[in-house]
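User: I'll paste a sequence; please echo it back and then give the predicted structure.

Assistant: Echoing your sequence first, then the prediction.
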Amino acid sequence: MECEGVMPDKFTFATVVKACASLAALDRGKQVHGHCLGAGFELDDVARSALVDMYAKCGYIEDARKVFEKITERNAISWTAMIAGYARIGRLDDAWMLFRQMPKPDTVTWTAMIVGYVQMGNDADALKLFYQMLKEGVKLDHFALSSALGACAGLAVLENGRQVHASAVEAGFESSLFVGNALVDMYSKCGIIEDALEVFGKMRVRDVVSWTAMIVGCAQHGRGKVTLQFFEQMLIAGLKPNNITFVGLLYACSHAGLVDEGRHYFNSMSLEYGISPTIEHYTCMLDLLGRAGFLDEAEEFINNMPVKPDATIWGAMLGACRVHGNIDMAQRTAERLVQLQMEDSSTFVLLSNTYAAAGRWDDVAKVRKLMIGRELRKQPGCSWIEVKAKTHVFHAGEISHPQKEEIHVMLEWLAAQMKAVGYVPDTNFVLHDMEEHKKEHHISYHSEKVAVAFGLISTFPGTTIRVVKNLRVCGDCHTALKFICKIVGREIVARDANRFHHFKDGQCSCQDYW
């Protein structure tokens, strides 16, 4: 343009900077910025707003802030660019401070804050902000709705999820692809796979995200064969799977014991679809072999991996060793974990649990001494349940709830009823060296049992109890919930760190393969 003798003006400059922002072309954007300053251009607020947006989208938040401070009359673009920029890199306090200072935040700005909270795992604050957005009458868009649904999925708060769904319908966004995908994910993660299937069936347009959400959802609920059927239907629809699709497939095969199918899909990733397996795919494949008892093959699989095994890989191997009682292999695996010098306590806890289950208390003490030396602490187990759109959290071994007396009574009643029909507490899951009666008391107050007891006294007879646990449900609690669901005549849905368990009529959907 300049070669032709036509000099750019401030509008040309703003347009070029916007293009750089869209492409995240930082170096080119800096060149344009420097060129204009060198040519003596007087930057106006429109041009500065474009620069703020460009620097923020490219992750150079301090440069964006310097330009932002020079704007005399800030518009919605510059405010939102700064707020979204801070939120994108996790500086939510800075984002919130600017958000509070902004004269009239619009839909895009509210959504930027909500998305920032969700991306940083702060789902509770994201949901609070969404409800505040509704209260102030700000117009919704599909990004705000899908982000709020993502927060509900992360917290597994079904009643809140239904409220957001209703807001989407009221705002006319139920047919939005973004909202539809988020609804499928939300209902799956809140434990109602049937509602996810219903939403999916009504979607007019589906993309790879839609199919993958359904595949991952079915996998998490232990519907292995259904998961594979969805994959075949996806291919018939002409869509190409992505790496997340294969994570769902391999996960489904692992939790359904479909070893041959899992091997086939793992090999087809690179051979048929040109997708290089990531550490997540290798972990799923290792978990598949380990769960099925192919420990030697699993160990060989690790040794032949083209990528260096990380703590997740060795942790999955250690978990398989514990399930199948192979202490020697567990010890070899643990040595690899110790060599990694990792700061995550979970694998040390798993090794401690493996020794405890075998009654090797001296080895348990050695592992815990090592944890203390590295200043590692076990993540405390907790479970939560949503009743009347309010979330109640319970921790193992203690009840600090206003209704603790009623919960105690219900737990005692359940224990008596279960023992009357043959339940025997499995105290091998108490990972402390103590007297047997103390072990029984300790295990009866695991957080998932407490949450279920609270659900029983707080909901109408026949209501499904839905509980979420931050860790893997223990074997004794798994057995106890099968007894409880039959005694009280209710379905119990438990989501733990790995999957969903649907307890009904004395049985679990995982068929004890978990």
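Residues 76 and 105 are 8 Å apart (CA to CA). The mean pLDDT is 86.
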